[in-house]
Hints:
- Keywords: Zinc.
- The protein is of the alpha/beta class.
- The chain has a single domain, classed as Rossmann fold (3-Layer(aba) Sandwich), CATH 3.40.50.
- It contains 7 helices and 7 strands.
- The longest helix has 18 residues, at 209-226.
Amino acid sequence: MRSPAPPAPEELRRVLCFGAHPDDLDFGAAGTVAAWRRAGVDVQYCLMTDGDAGGFDPEHRAEMVARRRQEQLDAARLLGVEQVHFLGFKDGYLEPSHEVMERVVAVIRQVRPDVVMAMHPERDWTRLQRSHPDHLACGEAVTRAVYPAVENPYAYPHLAEAGLEAFKLRWLWLYAGPAERENHWVDVTEHLDLKVRALRQHLTQHPDVGRMEDYVRTQLAAKGAAGGLADGRLAEAFHVVEVNAADTIAGF
């Protein structure tokens, strides 16, 4: 299989990152996002569910959606991400349906990014918690949307009629998937503090903040080693897919 050579940050103009729930992107990609923003890349988020099934305090149920939305906005702004799209689907009920895919296609065509990032559509059997059904649905819906619907003007034709024209996306980056699919590692050592600070914004989700932070550091160190980085370096890992390369021939 041909190994794609992902673009350097300075080669990118705009990136659109999808997460199933508030905090997914901060766990999976906040260090990479911080590196992109430092390089001047316009990074936007799209959260697919409202996060209402999260949290641990029964007293917060009525306000959980508002709390989690604000937590995500606060975390995003720490990293320099100003634009956050909220699709508002119900937490725990996300499916790769045409209703969801149409909304995803609309956002991608509106933003017209160089890279779309999403959760991985394949289940990770080594740590099942990584493969929440909403995570898998996020990855499947975005992957289906990226090809062929985003680039097919006859898919959801009313979108093109409304001015959201089809275009060919170059790169799809998937996170939180099986380790055997990972083919690209980003050194995030210098961005650890920002990643941890972003995760700390999601206080409704962390009954033990110290344990969470220890886990994140351990995982980043393991990914750094798996990616062949120097001793002590930390990494986030992705499955990078080149959707439209120079030699791609695709029909719908």
